[in-house]
Write a structure and sequence with these properties.
The structure is a homotetramer.
Chain A (H helix, E strand, L loop, with lengths): L2 E11 L1 E9 L2 E15 L2 H5 L9 H15 L4 H15 L3 E17 L2 E17 L3 E14 L24 E11 L6 H18 L5 H15 L3 E10 L2 E3 L13 E4 L4 E10 L12
Antiparallel strand pairs in A: 2-3, 3-4, 4-5, 5-6, 6-7, 7-8, 8-11, 9-10
Helix pairs in contact in A: 2-3, 4-5
Chain lengths: 286, 286, 286, 286
């Protein structure tokens, strides 16, 4: 044969699950989007259509809902670990399970009433094999803005550079963060709260000479605050706010009126990693 | 001629404007999406391409930014009225101006730091003619859920009805509300806050036998609380949460595990109107 | 009572239905998004939660699928008329039914293989009462561009006008068209094809001095070609393509390199109506 | 220091560029979305905010537009290679450049008139270092459907399996494909056309016992037809079409009426790789 099956996996994406826990009249809700993906001895279905190793994606979906009932969802990390462990241990052909989680926040309005907390999403990615497991966490959709304490200058100017230097600009971004845990012994929900707070305070409290500097400060702050995190990966779009030139209308614009642009946007991607971080293994494969 | 130009208008849609007010080190931000639309003696450009009556949409956009600098944005309703009034009074061909506003919320993180407050959007629609003006307000993207105190039964059953009756269900919706003011003498921002609160408390506090009943309660509460509102229009998608049948797996499901469905969805639309409401005039044309 | 229930309706939105007709080995597919909405004697459910007049939206959805099996889908207009007629005639409380249709196009790849034809969507809106019916058709998502034969000049210049005149520009828009039929005796599919062709040729063949002129030409062409159409409503975003200023890099730009902008955009809305068009009645209420 | 800067890069994302080439009255257009990303000696800006190595993303954007004017866009792969080469060779601090391209298709309506060809997007990802370069191509948004010749059975049944076996189902997917070239000596546009055709014919002509089997057939066909491709990566969502149970209404459903579901969906990911494929190097890093 001149070619072969390479890396492959399959699963059910985006199982939308809401769990309501009733403690007397006071309810708690968990709102999830769960995706599973399995890999292992799957060559036959690709080559011949023999599905004897292919646990249906429909069964994976059913497992998600049944496990939520049977075991609850103490945290998305724990729930994902349990799901992943189940697939690896119960299906001989499955050597690796990936589970991806999105959790949507809700604010309490009453004992059994809630309002969606916006675009911010807590995420997790879990990889489980027969003898190991890796957990990453994450956060997306957190849009933040500093209206001052941001500069950008001292950059090289080539033949295509027209950008003026600025000593006071708006800095805004939509945080897309992922972090890798070095252990499975983590108070997952408390850790998430601390990481989120570290990202926000890192953004707010950094006097910024570049979005890269802010990125490094945010990632560093997470590593300082949460010892179980080995590495933080950040992708920060620079959501440009351009001061509008009002001079044609006889007006100045003392950094008051801005056009919020859609595209293009700067995109700053970077990693802050603990010097003694363990090998990443399959952590990022989910 | 066998056919003619009917209703028409033109303008600039979606001018994204962020205004920063600096009171010493403490900043306030206003984040808007502004759309303008003008109508009047515009037949010539349609029939012959003679643009002598067509103030460019680019000029309309410039006006939005310049007016924000010159007059500020005390409320989206006032800002829209000022813009609309300007176009009608300064352009002879323009008889009617529509201005639509979206305002995005931000939470304070620090003196000059903020985070986006989510999908909820405050809206306004203003229509101005040479001798009159109308204002509507609105709110979209407020997603709310009651995990109990909702029933649905007693409905007719035809040949295509398979739905079981339910005496305890999740009720969730994304509130899309518009309201018409009967006067221009309104404390706009305070009124908005009261209307928003009335909509939420109407949803939370209504023991619901149908989403229609909830809708009417929400609209009624607005009219009770805010005398300047003549009419409330609500469009409430019924964001279905279906209890998952876990019996194939030997489990019960005491209203704990739900599948949050995307499509199709119920859509309930209704109006609550004050008995002595003034004529709507052009209020809804924006 | 100080306030009352005003206009209201309810239904099931976005029933996604694919129908496959097999004529031997050669298949035909119809891909629809169907929304129904009923109104009538619905006050009780709003005021007291008495649902005895509220045919469930779930039953409406079931009817959509069952009718597709029983009667087929000769055209979206006929299918909508049949659905609307059913609800009005079978439910005593229902006085008016609205049915909205979206149809997605597929290109043939083989006897039973197809590829989605893109963003273009054929739409219909039908309103049925006990003794009358109205049909509108429509089309959205058809994005077209002329790379020349478009000018824009001769417009008024106020204090906020900075736009230069142009004698050669790109004109691009995403056509959003709706039309009202004056009769129910229409060869629906053939009429749609002719209307679509008229809109496109009206765009392509008009030397344009303003997007308004193009709009009127497009609408007029429909009325010229399809006698059953009483009125055409068009909303045409001006998808701006700005020539990039390359002079800082020592280059000219002879209308070759453009930046395709997202927001803001011009928005031109207009109607062309036949002089002897019948009253619109409830045609636009769907 | 207890932690360090890891992998990082920065650039300008989503530069929307339309190029019009005029050959007399007959025009050709190229519609692109270009993203650049640079990496190298960028530690200082992260640690201290010293931007002396940070060519502004605004300059990168300007370069995109200027190069389109100076060198044209013979293919997205060539254009990306030229851009990447420029950044690496002209900026001492830049060791690696990534360029990502999206190209939107347009159908010809006339000599200088076009209509957007739908959701299908041609992509490319290029990585350039001082002494090497890698090119990947891709295609997204091609939605295809077979209305028969698809089965799914013979799968394992665990405690959570309720799915019935099927011997005739609809198979639909939205193709997301990427491929890696083993050489830079490729007739890029001709290769793209052949790869696209191979993917489509692989989908259409495969009698499918699983979407995995179809995936492998599609990837294999590409490798058979285009020798310059070393590897094909496919992500195929299983866009479920569920036959509607019409039996409650006294009807059968001989695979005629389907509900097109949104979420969840199966997701099949797989790679087909040539046995003598060269090392991937940085090919997938863009």
């Amino acid at each position: 044969m001149k070619f072969s099956l390479g890396a492959n996996r399959y699963g059910k994406a985006e199982c939308r699950l809401v769990r309501v826990v009733r403690d007397g009249g006071r309810h708690e809700i968990t709102d999830l989007n769960v995706s599973t993906s399995l890999s292992g001895d799957l060559e036959e279905t690709h080559l011949t259509g023999d599905n004897s190793a292919v646990l249906p994606t429909d069964s994976q979906k059913n497992t998600v809902y049944a496990f939520a009932r049977e075991f609850g969802v103490p945290s998305i990390e724990e729930f994902a670990l349990r799901l992943g462990g189940h697939f690896v241990s119960s299906q001989e052909a499955v050597h690796t399970a990936n589970v991806r989680m999105e959790q949507y926040g809700w604010n309490r309005l009453g004992d059994h009433s809630f309002s969606r907390a916006g675009d911010e999403v807590r995420t997790a990615g879990v990889t489980v094999t027969s003898d190991s497991a890796w957990v990453t966490g994450g956060l997306t959709g957190l849009t933040v803005m500093n209206t001052t304490d941001s500069e950008f200058h001292g950059f090289p100017r080539d033949a295509y550079t027209t950008l003026p230097e600025t000593h006071d600009r708006i800095l805004a971004t939509a945080v897309d963060a992922k972090w890798r845990f070095s252990t499975l012994d983590v108070p997952w929900n408390a850790a998430y709260a601390m990481i989120r707070e570290a990202l926000i305070s890192g953004f707010v409290e950094t006097y910024s000479l570049s979005l890269q500097q802010t990125l490094f400060a945010m990632g560093s702050r997470v590593l300082e605050k949460v010892p179980e995190v080995a590495e933080v990966r950040l992708a920060l779009p620079n959501k440009h706010h351009f001061p509008v030139d009002l001079s044609p209308f006889g007006m100045d614009n003392p950094n008051e009126i801005f056009l919020a642009a859609d595209r293009p946007y700067g995109l700053i991607e970077g990693t802050v990693v603990r010097d003694d971080a363990p090998e990443e293994g399959l952590a990022w494969s989910s």
